[in-house]
Each structure stands twice: as structure tokens, then as C-alpha cells.
Amino acid sequence: MSPFTTLLLQWWAIHQRQLPWKNTQDPYLIWLSEIMLQQTRVEQALPYYERLSAAFPTVKHLADASTDDLMRLWEGLGYYSRARNLHATAKHIAYQLDGHFPNTYQQILQLKGVGHYTAAAIASFAYNLPHAVVDGNVFRVLSRVFGIETPIDSTKGKQQFTQLANQFLPPNRPADFNQAIMDFGAIQCTPKPNCDTCSLQNICIAFEQKKTTTLPIKEKKIVKKERFFHYLLITDPQQQIYINRRTARDIWQHLYEFPCIETNKLLTNVELFPHINQLLQTNIAIENTSKPYTQQLTHRTVHAIFHHITCRTTPTTPAEWQHIPAADLSQYPFPKIITQFLADQSQQQQILF
Ligand code: SF4
């Protein structure tokens, strides 16, 4: 074994994280946890994993769940395409593969929503197959320890780091090595690294050359697009409210929202008025307007304002809008920006009606 692998496994023997999905070799539970951990911190994913694995203990349970039940349990975790892929894949495994989870790297890679990282994680953790995981933690550790300046978001970088990780993977302990390098990246060699207490200091090129803050290197910067949503809380004397499921291939697909007018900037009520009149084909009054809310997504910044609207006559509404009792709002999955608004409303004891 190389000094790097030996030191890493020694460090891990002492410092490894105890997480519920590490105590199983059930490929379904490992897959569930890995999908939840994509783009998400462990602390954030943990309670969701507990809830989902309890509600859907087998792939068959998940396959048979309703979309709304799954989305409600997923609500707040973000990246909702993961939940949709998870559901489609669970149905595929339960009904096309007779409930048998694929057991080779190539077969696992064929599953919807599973890329190289997730396939390697499932193959090694469930079946102890020799495939190295390569994610942000692994890029960071390898680039620092070996002083590699190839950008981690370049094709060349991805190939180079994948090759290196596989080169150091001990064939008899692939699962341990993968857990170790990820735990090391999450606890020790973090974005602001803890070099003072690091047992790999003597072999670390970034430490020796004082490059720990400049490595790893990224070549692309994310440019965020801004979006502006005006949500209409259209109420009536029967204490009903309109909601609408987002069906387009866009952010938050399958989640619910209030009827929305999207504009290219946040409008004043005076500017918004004609848009609402045109949409509802009736005279309306804006009773209240919320403060602006903001939600950061990876490639988007979403700004939203909520307007409480009353109508003089019954509005013309699209067939897909649902008219529900306001008391039932908690039964529907909403994007975080809306649940935040609803939580503020209930905290301030503001009542919509
Ligand atoms: S010495 Fe610092 S940069 Fe090098 S592996 Fe340890 S924590 Fe990471």
C-alpha cells in the first residue's frame, strides 16, 4: 500500500463518521442516501434520509408511493429532479428488474440519475467492488496532497483525478478507502483545511509549498440567472385558495405554488395591477403585499413577493389551478421560498382571511 493510502486508512480508523447509511450493505438504502447527498451537506440530508428510509424501507415501497407523498417528504431538500429520478428508477427496479438491484458498476450506471460517482459509491459500499469515488471532497484531497494544478472542473482534470483515486484504491478494501477519503475531505482537509492537526502533513505537497488555499483550482465560475416571481394568494369568502402544480421542465417541477406572474424585475403594485387583471379577467384588489423573499439555487437566484388578492367577481382561472381549503396547504409540497413565507405568516399570526 502507498504511504498515502496507509496514512489515510490509519486516520480513518480513528476519525470515521458514524452515519446511518454506513451501517448497511443494502444497495437500495445506499442508493437512497447517495442520491440525497448529491449537492447536499450530510447534516442537511440526515433527517431526510431517516424519514424517507422509514417511510419507504424497500424499493417496492418507494415504487408504490404517490408522487405527492414522496415530494412532501423531499420538500426543502432541493434539486427536485433527484426525487423524480429516484421514483422512476424505483419503479424500474421493482417492476422491470423484479425488485433485484443491479449488482455491477456498469449496470448501476445505467440507472436514471446515477452518474459515475454514485455508481462507484453503490458498487463499493454494497458489493465491495473496486471502483473509486471521485467527488468534490476527493478532488480537493488529491489535488492538495499531490499538488495537482489541473482544474478539477475540466475534462482532463476529471480523468486525471479519477485515475489517481483508482490507482490508490486497495483492491481488498475499496469501501473503506472510499469512505476514508470522503470523511477526510469532510472533516480534516476541508475547504479551510485543518493542517495543524493533519497526519498527512509530511506527505502533503500543498502544505509544503504553502498552496493549501489555492488548491484545488477551478476554471469556470457559475453565472447565476435572476428570476422574479409574483405569487398571487387569491382568496374568497369560503376560505379557499388557488394553487397550481409546476409541470414544466423548469425549477421545482412537480412542486406546488400559488398562481405566479413571472417578470424580468420585481414590479410595484401599480405596475403589477394590469398583469393580474389580464390574468384573472375581473376587477381585483391587492389587500396586502409581503416583503421580498430570496432563495439561492445553484444556477439561479429566485426573488418572490406574495400578494393577497381579493376579486370582485369569480375570476377566470385556468383548468389546472386547484381550488383548495387554505387549512389544507400543509398537505402539499411547496418550494422552500413558499414554505418560508407560510412559516412567517403563521409565526406572525397573520391570517390570510
Ligand atoms: S496538510 Fe492540510 S492540505 Fe494537506 S492533506 Fe492535511 S489538511 Fe489537507
Describe the protein's architecture and organization.
Helix 2 packs antiparallel against helix 3 and helix 9 (136-145) packs across helix 11. The protein has 353 residues and is an alpha+beta fold. The longest helix has 16 residues, at 81-96. The protein contains 14 helices and eight strands. It starts with a helix and ends in a 6-residue tail after the last helix. Strands 1, 4, 5, 6 and 7 form a five-stranded mixed β-sheet that branches. The chain has a three-stranded antiparallel β-sheet with strand order 3-2-8, with no helix packed on it. Iron/sulfur cluster binds at residues 144-145, 188-189, 193-195, 198, 200-201, 204, 206-207, 212.
Q: Whole-number average pLDDT? A: 92
CATH A-level architecture of the largest domain:
Orthogonal Bundle
- Anisotropy-based shape: elongated
Low-confidence stretches: none
Examine the coordinates and then state which fold CATH places here, giving the name of the CATH topology of the largest domain: Endonuclease III, domain 1
Work out the radius of gyration.
Answer: 24 Å
Order of helices and strands: HHHHHHHHHHHHEEEEHEEEEH
Annotation field: number of helices: 14
CATH class of the largest domain: Mainly Alpha
Q: In CATH, what is the homologous superfamily of the largest domain?
A: Hypothetical protein, domain 2
Tell me roughly what share of residues is in helical segments. Answer: 40-55%
SS-based class? alpha+beta
**Total E-strand runs:** 8
Q: What summary fits the major beta sheet?
A: 5 strands, mixed
Count of individual domains: 2
- Sheet-strand content, in percent, reads 5-15%
First-last Cα distance: 69 Å
**Which molecules are bound in this entry?**
iron/sulfur cluster
